[in-house]
Amino acid sequence: MIKKIAIGIIFSLVFTSSAQEWKQNNKETNVVFTIKNFGVNVDGYFNDVKITTNFNADQLTESYLNAEIVVKSISTGIESRDNHILKKAYFDVENNKKIRLKSIKIEKKEGQKFSLNASLTIKGITKNIVVPLEIVQNEKTVTILANFTINRKDFKVSGGGFVLSNAVKINVKFKGTK
Question: Do residues 29 and 51 touch, judged by C-beta distance below 8 A?
């Protein structure tokens, strides 16, 4: 009986520690984007980002990576432009407060390279995407880098077709600790 209890305790400790979420380091976690407007790169970022992950390279089937971004926290360095892109034709912040990324599956590629299959929801439109990841993990910290491109028109984030590029380059950095 004591043996069964000891095995149960060990199993629960191992399962609990492997499924533990990483605590986001807000100072080192960011989501930045670049889009061409009149042929010039416009950079921006979101101030309010929450990324949750329990990433464990040894247990990918149980691992996830999810994100919530408060749309109103967008910053391009020009307040009038920020206010303009929050309107209905672009992000429609009155009806769509958050951008959401929900993990479907994480797969190992090679070395520290992984692939995230996820659903991305912008303006109430959900599309499945594949995001390449570079992940550096040790016992106490994890750093996840993602660089990918989406088509803003897929999510009905509209605007001038000739002056504003459809391609939006997104760079994400997540730093977490146990």
Answer: yes
